[in-house]
Protein: ECF RNA polymerase sigma-E factor
Organism: Novipirellula artificiosorum
Amino acid sequence: MSDSHEADAQLVDRIRSGDDDAWRSLIDRYEGRLLAFTNSRIRDRAASEDIVQDAFVGFLISLPNYDGSKRLESYLFSICAYKLTDHLRREGRRPTLQMHSRRSSHPGEQSFVGGDRMASSIARSVERKQLEHDAIRDAITEQIQRWKETDSWSKLRAIELLYVVGMSNKLVAEKTGLSEQQVANYKSDFQIRLRAIIGRMNLDQAVFPELADS
């Protein structure tokens, strides 16, 4: 095992154990590369940031299925490619994701070519997206209810400002009187809990393509 592969394996183990610093390290290590990959294809920084954030959430959700046989970088790029495909479809550009490998500057990077898809393929994509949305909605509802039952109002307020209002960690910290580290911890905790809840739903792998072994 190479040094980088071993370092990634250790990082994943720490994330699985709930280590918030490990999650931050993962983002610091790969966010820039994923943003460059996404932004080079859609030339929209805000949309690229949303896609990359979705990719990291997708990684958390799929973490129970990640066995380390595939390089972490390639795995993250594959998830990001799926999220980018969904974005392009919603924009009406209807790309086709080419799943064969090709030489590129980024492992896991995929080619996108234009072309219409058959009606049945479009219908399956819409259905899968709805199931994905429903699963995430139900997981969020369950976690919010748990925090209400335990009077975790500071967490709820921070998460609302982060995801509903769209504030940065720094602004949420200023607004709530929390430290930026506390806000980051709440955010990481929320994402990890959503992953765990969705993992218990036993969804078909077609709902979250990133869950499938490749």
